[in-house]
Amino acid sequence: MKTIKFYKTGDKYGCFSNFSSHPIVINNVEWKTSEHYFQAMKFLDPKLQNRVREINSPMEAAKFGRDRALPLRPDWEQVKDDVMRTAIIAKVTQNQEVFDILFYTDDAILIEHTINDAYWADGGDGRGKNMLGIILMEIRDKIKSALTKVGVIKGDITTLRIDAIVNAANKSLTGGGGVDGAIHKAAGQELKMYCAKYKGCKTGEARVSSGYNLSAKYIIHAVGPVWYEGEKNEDRKLYMAYSNSMVLAQEVKAKEIAFPNISTGAFRFPFDRATAIQRYAIVSFLMLNDNIDKVQIVCFSEKDLQRVSTKYNKNNR
Ligand code: AR6
């Protein structure tokens, strides 16, 4: 069995270290690193938690949290594993880089390797508990279980009998070419009249309509970004188009939904890059929300089917 050891942030798997600079937001509060959040949670006093939040480096945050002249919450030993789980799940689902690296570790055993810690790490001689490695592997299992809900098929999205299909729309929401044109044509004139009421939609956002003449109950109109060489925050906007669509699907209680490969046609987003963002957005949403049972990625060509399947099947990449 392959093992992966990590500790220093600059190393290949350094993103798994709690010192790596991947920010997280928990209950609307932003933390510079998972270490900051973990150390702050040692205190019940919000003022002390805030002091940790304002510290710059994770090393300084750790020093502050370890200062036993300050009052440690009495149940710390009971809650510390769950505090770490909360931090790490946020880190993995909020940072695509960490998500992708964890995804591609396949079945390798993850070990935090250092003599400095025998609880979170292996103690240097392998006799430590490696709790951080164990938590990362638990979260990787959540990725795998979310992946079982994602299907990749070839077809025409307008023909699907499903709760909701997603449209790759433009900001006007009143139709266009590509999959948008096909959906409007198949759904009928009423769709256009209904969508006009929205008076447009910003890039990265989505709106819902009924399916009209389609077999799908709902259409979620998502506006992906036009690709401008990555200079206009396109990655984030594409991520938002997917995640906002998932939120809307959940709101209308859709159990099964289908996506086209948003922005990869007329909007020219590089295909593999778009698929990695799609995978991250959909799988991380499914990890955190139980209401959607199935997400189908509908590819229009054999070539796209191959490329997308490869991205979701980690052994065939
Ligand atoms: N079913 C599934 N996928 C399809 C279908 C279909 N019937 N038709 C095309 N695709 P695009 P975009 C695939 O250009 O890049 C429109 O004019 C296609 O192969 O439809 O987000 C809108 O009005 C590609 O992989 O959407 C906007 O102005 C993917 O769907 C603009 O294009 C998306 O290609 C949006 O551009």
Secondary structure layout:
Blueprint: E1 3-6, E2 24-26, E3 29-31, H1 34-40, H2 46-54, H3 58-66, H4 76-94, H5 96-103, E4 109-112, H6 131-147, E5 150-154, E6 164-169, H7 178-187, H8 189-196, E7 206-210, E8 218-223, H9 234-251, E9 256-259, H10 271-288, E10 294-299, H11 302-312
Parallel strand pairs: 1-4, 5-10, 6-8, 6-9, 9-10
Antiparallel strand pairs: 2-3, 7-8
Helix pairs in contact: 1-2, 1-3, 1-4, 4-5, 4-6, 6-10, 9-10, 10-11
The structure holds ligand AR6.
Ligand AR6 binds next to strand 6 and helix 7.
Taking pLDDT < 50 over at least 5 consecutive residues as the criterion, the unreliable ranges are none
- CATH architecture label of the largest domain: 3-Layer(aba) Sandwich
Instruction: Examine the coordinates and then state which fold CATH places here, giving the name of the CATH topology of the largest domain.
Output: Leucine Aminopeptidase, subunit E, domain 1
Number of helices: 11
Fourth-level CATH superfamily of the largest domain: Leucine Aminopeptidase, subunit E, domain 1
* Rg over C-alpha atoms, rounded to the nearest angstrom: 22 Å
Question: Approximately how much helix is present in the residues?
Answer: 40-55%
| Biggest sheet architecture | 6 strands, mixed
- The secondary structure category is alpha/beta
H/E topology pattern: EEEHHHHHEHEEHHEEHEHEH
Range of strand content: 5-15%
Number of domains: 2
Could you say which small molecules are bound to this protein? ligand AR6
Compute the number of strand runs: 10
Mean pLDDT: 97
Strand order of the largest sheet: 5-10-9-6-8-7
Coarse shape: elongated
**Span of the ends, CA to CA:** 20 Å
